[in-house]
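Quick one: structure tokens for this chain, please?
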Amino acid sequence: MSITPETDDATVEKCLVLGHGFHDDERSTVTTILARMDSHLAGQSADQVRLDLHMKEPGQRGRKVTLECHMVGLSPLVATSADEDTKVAIAHIRDEVLRQLEDQKSKRLKH
């Protein structure tokens, strides 16, 4: 269940914090990959959402890319990928966080 974001709604661009292993020059590529999340963040104010993206052991074999999604009113959502292609890893964790988000929203609607 998603809606079109309003001007003051949370978006990946507004809420993304690039952590360890990522640099500002990668921001555009990362936000493009994560942009599918925008419609799922709609309805939340940008100051109520934080997306933390970081990489453990950058440049090393077996590194892990992690996305943490913190939204007011929901439990934190966390997804990790060890895919060697960083872009593929980001896409995988995006899809996993969206799945978790939909699960939490569905549970709330049932109660």
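The beta strands are 16-18, 49-56, 64-71, 77-81.
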